[in-house]
Amino acid sequence: MKIVPTIGMETHVELKTNSKMFCRCNVVETDKPNENLCPTCLGLPGSLPVPNKRAIEFITLLALSTKCQITTDGMFHRKNYFYPDLPKNYQISQFDLPVGTEGSLEIVVNGEFSTVEIERVHMEEDTGKSTHIGSGRIDSATSTHLDFNRAGIPLVEVVTKPLIKSSKEAVSYIEELRQLVIDLDISEGKLEKGNLRFDANISVAYENDDELGTKVEIKNMNSLRSLEKAIEYEISRQTKMLNNNETIIQETRHWDEKKEVTSSMRSKEGSADYRYFSDPDIPNMILSKDFIDKIKNNMPVLPSEKRNTFINSGLSIEDANSIGKSPKWMGELYKSVSDITNDSKTTFNWITGELQGQLRKLGETSPPEWMTAEQLAEIISLVKNDKISFTSGKEILAELIEEKINPEEYAISNKLIQENDTEEISKMVKEIIKENSEVLERIANGEEKLIGFLVGQVIKLSNGKVNPSVAKELLLKEIK
Amino acid sequence: MTDKIDIKNVAKLAALKLTTEEENKLEKDLSMIIDHFAALSEMNLPDEKISIHPLGTPLDLADDEAIIFLSHEEALSNAPESSDGQFVVPPSLD
Q1: Are residues A374 and A227 both part of a single domain?
Q2: Which residue range forms the structural domain that includes residue A441?
Q3: Cα A171 from Cα A110, distance rounded (Å)
Q4: At a CB cut-off of 8 Å and minimum separation 6, what does B79 contact?
Q5: What is the pTM of this model?
Q6: Does A132 touch chain B if contact means CB atoms closer than 8 Å?
Q7: Runs of H (alpha helix) within A15-105
Q8: Which tens digit of pLDDT belongs to each residue from A130-177?
Q9: How many domains in chain B?
Q10: Is A50's Cβ below 8 Å from some Cβ in B?
Q11: Which chain A residues contact residue B93 at CB under 8 A?
C-alpha cells in the first residue's frame, strides 16, 4: 500500500518594531551583549509587561492578509518551561485565543496554484541567546552564557494545518509567507538573519488510513535548501520504519546540516507539560472594530494580488510568481517595460536574465538611476525587430549600465544595425559560396556543421552587420 | 478521583530531585489538591465565559517608542556571575 507524508509548518516571524513586545527596550542589532535590557525583559519582581501597539497592528495585518478570523476578545498566556533563555521562566504567548484562526495562503508549486490552510497566527516574545561553554555542545557544556538582547522581541508564530504533502510545497509556502511579511512591511524577512525561523512536523501513514501517523518535529533548518532536504530525509526515514513495522516515536529531531541527517533531540513535550495559564499581568486584549477596520483599509498590495497582475499581463503562473518574489524594482520595471513592448515573455527574460545577470556580475543589486523603462524597451524592440543582433543588444545594455546613452543612437554610431536587405545579403552569400567550393563539397558529404562556418564568413564580410538568421536562410537556399 | 499523578514527570519538569519517600508524599498531596479542584466541575455553573481578569481592566497598548532603561553595567550588577558581558548560569542540560 502506498505511504503518504503529511507536513505541518510552524514559522516564527520576527517583527520590525522599534521596541520589544512587552517593554520599551530598543530592538537594534548590536554586537554588545546585554545592552538593551530593563526589569521587564529581565523578569525582575514588580515589573509589568505592556504589549506593543505596533506589534499588535502588525499581527492583525498578517492575520487579515492570510484570511484569518480575528479574535476580538483575546488574551495572553504564560508558557512555562525550565530553561534559562527567558529569565522569567515562562514565555508570554497565546494559547486558546490567538489573534487569528482558520486562515489560508495561496501558493504556487511547480507552476500551479495550491492553498495552504493556516490553523492559527499568534503573538509571543523571542528568547535570549545562550552560548554553551566548554565542549561547544549543549549536552556536555560546563556553563551557559546568556545574552538577553533578543529576549522579548515580538514574534508572530504562524501554524499551518497538517495538510502539506511535499517538501516542495513546504518550501513554496515559506517563500510565499516570506514575501508576504516583506510586502506588508512588518518584518525584514531575512532567513539568514533569523527573521524567519521554521520547524516542520512530519508524519507518514498508509494512504487509506483514517488517522495521521506519529508526528515528529524537525528543528534547526536555516535555509530553504535545508528545509527541503530535511523533509525529504525525514519522510524517507519514517517510510523505511513503517515498512519494517518499527514504531515511530513522537519526538523532536535536530537537522544536521553537515551530515544531512536528523537526530533525536528530546521526546516531544505535550502542551500540558508547558502548564499554560492566562497571564494575570495583562488584561484581555480587546480589538475594536475601529482598530481592525483601520488596518483593513490600509492594507498594501499582497503578493497574490501582485502575482495576478503579472499573470494578467501575459506571464505564466511560474514566471509571475518568480518576478513577484524578486527585488521590488524588477517587478516595477517589468510592468513599465512590458507596457511599451507589449511582449511579456521577452521583457521578463531580458529583465530577470540579461539585466539581472549583468548587474550581478558588477556586484550591483539594482540598475543605475538613469536607466529608464523606455531605454530598455528600445533595446528589446531593436533586437525583436532584427535591427540589431541579440549580442549587440547585450552590448548596448552593458553600456547603458555604465553610462546614460540612447540605445538606438549608440547602435547606429557603433555600426551595430544589421543588414536585412536580402538582395545585399544574397550578393554576399554568393560571393562566399564562390570562395569556399571545398567547404561546399564537405557539406554535400554530410558535414552540415560547416553551414555555421559559412554563415560566419558572410557576417565577417559584412563587418558584423548581417542578420545571421537571414544569412543562414539565404545560404541554405543557394546551396540547395 | 482524578487520574494518577505522574510525580516523576512533574519532578522532572520542575527540575527537582526527589527521594522515593518524597515522591510518595508529594504524589498524595498533589492528588488531594487536584481532587479539591475536581469538586468545582461538579458545580452547576452558568454557561458563561470564565473571568480571568475579574476587574475587567481595559488593556492599554504602549506606543512603539524605544527608551534606554538600564545601562549594560546596571543590568549585570546583581548577577551572581558574569563573563564577557554575559550572564553565566550552570549548564542548561545535565
Answers
A1: no
A2: 422-479
A3: 11
A4: B87, B88
A5: 0.84
A6: yes
A7: 53-65
A8: 988 886 666 677 889 999 999 999 999 999 999 999 999 999 999 999
A9: 1
A10: yes
A11: 138-139, 141
